[in-house]
User: What shape does this take?
Amino acid sequence: MRIRLASINDFEALCAIDSSAATCAERSGQIRRWLETACCWVYEINAQISAYGVLTQHFFGQPFIEMVMVGQKFRRQGMGAAIISHFQATASGAKLFSSTNMSNRTMQRLLTRQGFKPSGYIDNLDEGDPEIIFYCPLTRR
Assistant: This one.
């Protein structure tokens, strides 16, 4: 198991594990942009990409976990938590943010287990499904 910075060569593998990329051209384009801007990290098991995460600085200049995606057959094995832990250990600054839809209870539980707390919400991004913003203070050892 290892977490490493993704490269453009990982594009097809990321699209293969992403639950939206097969049906949404916008998502595959977004994956390409994340790879081109070097903000995407992959979780590998035996050289096979099983999950990825995206850490940007676009949320009011703060580190923001924009995406955590675990391939369907790899879920519930701790990979999402490992990616978030990696971001908590490597993000710059004293705060880390993320968000998820109100309907995404799985991600809400994952963020809570990783020490995040709800910090507000945004209406009108997805009709009838507010986006919950989460915040985690970063402590350095």
Remarks:
- The longest strand covers residues 48-59.
